Amino acid sequence: MEGHILELEHLIKTSEIVDKNAHNKNLIDIGSHIKIDFDGNEKEFEIVGANEADPINGLVSYSSPLGKSFIGKRLGDEFEVEVPRGNIKCKILEIK
What we know:
96 residues; 5 strands
């Protein structure tokens, strides 16, 4: 229990608040809501911190391989993402 308390205290001390209204809507960053074309299938994600990640519900950590591939991309960018079943072509359709 004490270890968990120390971990939570560390998270509180080192956390940063991200203002979703202040980020660049033309560049994917933490807090961005994005729509992606994955080989013809549209998917929506929100880029979040590691503790908030829930990939099943579209919450992707910025530090995950998928999240890292999105960070810094711009509207219309096309790129490939490596997933367990191979590489998938992606295109950024929308950034909110």
